[in-house]
Specification:
With about 200 residues, the chain is an alpha+beta fold. The protein has a domain of about 120 residues: 60s Ribosomal Protein L30, Chain: A. Helices cover about 30% and strands about 15% of the residues.
Length: about 200
């Protein structure tokens, strides 16, 4: 009798649970918008295309990576004059790409040389001291060269006549390993570029 009562109770409980069950509310799904221009059947994942900076064909320094450079003309197509503006190098504070007021006279001398002959081009070489990684100094040297280009533009020099290159820490002016050397190495050098004759 007890067994019969147990089976009856269990059966009733099972029927009750089956009829009521656990009710779940449906969960709304929010579609994720996709940029249709970047998605296709062959590659359903959006991709970002990064524009690489133009690299000129100047040789790498000391076997290092190729220098960072800009503009669509190549300094190698010109005759390089490193002497005329050698005394007009500008220097930077540690870890800075800000052109200091004390460097304005040198920038004015560079601008005057460029204004004297509209056929000239200018190469700005950004340099750093030895501290920091190769990649960081390459970027800092580029920012320093770009800062000088911007300063020269404010003095009336067409930026399209100016080409920047970063050597990072690969071309120290002073090979020493102290503050005196580092101060000399945080610099922009200016190279006048003359058109090649008979080309």
């Amino acid at each position: 009798m007890k067994m019969k009562l147990f089976y009856s109770t269990a059966l009733a409980l099972a029927v009750a649970m089956a009829s009521t069950g656990c009710k779940h509310k449906p969960v709304a799904v929010t579609p994720i918008p996709q940029n249709q221009a970047m998605v296709n059947d062959q590659n359903p994942y959006p991709q970002t295309i990064q524009q690489e900076p133009p690299i000129n064909n100047l040789p790498p320094v000391n076997g290092g990576p190729a220098p960072i450079a800009t503009t669509d003309w190549n300094p190698a197509d010109f005759v390089m004059d490193r002497d005329t503006l050698a005394a007009d190098t500008i220097h930077f504070a540690f870890d800075s790409a800000v052109v200091r007021d004390s460097e304005q006279a040198n920038l004015q001398a560079v601008a005057s040389a460029m204004q004297a002959d509209p056929n000239l081009r200018l190469l700005i070489e950004g340099n750093c001291d030895e501290r920091g990684t190769e990649e960081y100094n390459r970027s800092l040297g580029e920012r320093r060269a770009l800062a000088a280009r911007e300063a020269l533009a404010k003095l009336g020099i067409d930026p399209m006549r100016v080409h920047e290159i970063s050597y990072g820490k690969d071309k120290p002016a002073d090979p020493g390993h102290d503050e005196e050397a580092w101060t000399k190495n945080r610099r922009d050098d200016f190279v006048l570029l003359h058109p090649k004759t008979g080309v």
